[in-house]
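Q: A reviewer asked whether we had any structural model of the full assembly, not just the individual parts. We don't, so I'm hoping you can provide one. Inputs are below.
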Amino acid sequence: MPERNVEARALQPDARARAKSVSRPQRNTRPPVGVGVLNEHLGYFMRRAQVWIFNDFIRTLSEIGIRPAQYSVLVVIGENPGLSQSDLARTLGIERARLVHMLDLLQRRGLTERQPAPGARRSHALFLTREGQKMLKRAKVLAAEHEAHLTERLGAANRKLMLDLMREVWQGRN
Amino acid sequence: MPERNVEARALQPDARARAKSVSRPQRNTRPPVGVGVLNEHLGYFMRRAQVWIFNDFIRTLSEIGIRPAQYSVLVVIGENPGLSQSDLARTLGIERARLVHMLDLLQRRGLTERQPAPGARRSHALFLTREGQKMLKRAKVLAAEHEAHLTERLGAANRKLMLDLMREVWQGRN
DNA sequence: TGCATTTGTTGTCTATTACAACAATTCGCG
DNA sequence: CGCGAATTGTTGTAATAGACAACAAATGCA
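A: Here is a predicted structure for the entire assembly that you could use as a starting point for your response.
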């Protein structure tokens, strides 16, 4: 997800609209383009929403350089210290191969470590370093800020309703 | 999205579970791994859900080799014959550069065509070929089948509720 | 008329996903 | 107990995708 410069597009919708109507006179006629049956597809909206949310997340946490997948890895390790790579991968639906790379990076940044698992010479026990714990704490604060953006956009009631719905339907089962 | 072989994993959840408990005796103890605060993040569920949905979509339409983004392009062209590439890109949130490549492929498959736009020598007017229209019709049937899978998983009421919510919150605005 | 913007295009870089193959280890069943 | 099958972490490859930059041609507009 290379979105190299999500912060640049960080303008709020209203701000963006304003900017457009000032510097760019909205160009005579922009004909409305309908999306037809896409309006009946949950996946379409789910995708659009997910992209929007991830962009906001990336932008909000850009000051600490933590992306959604990295955040989820830190959270799950923090929640289950000593778990193995394959358990972690399975839990988050990340490929084992991909996780190897992610952990290499996080480790290089001094946030996580692989320790020999007691009584399991082939697997690793994953831990947050002290720095990783600090980073996670900071990340959680910023993530809460991100979630506030969501509330702002959806309305508190809608957000809660949606979260409850999603949790009921998607939790556990992959 | 290289998911080269989504069909292979096409087993229904129950079937998968059964298969696992038969051929793979479930491996003594698989400790439950909690995801902590991820349970409070809409983006987390949104992502998991979106991936699941897209995989089912890809699988369900695999017989005609149409992926979600391609489907959305066909639908919008079908709905707005003659629209330009940049209007299409803007509508679907696809990059102009990326759309160029997608249209090259769809065109090579004889599904879409670029015609000179009347009175606008730099832009193209996009159309479905006759074959493209047939393909779209078939795709819509299969997409409905996919949507039925969703209903099966979410329950009809939940799906409708979720769709209404999403539509209310995400439609129009990018 | 002349300058800024738009449109389609090409190309580059990075992130992500799916796979395959391996060595080392561990499991489980006969 | 022993041995074949499965698991774990790893490396590597190919395909897909998004973000950007840079262009030429065309167009808009002051």
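A: Points you may want to mention in the reply: Chain B touches chain A through 61 residues (CB under 8 Å). Confidence is low (pLDDT under 50) at residues 8-27 of chain B.
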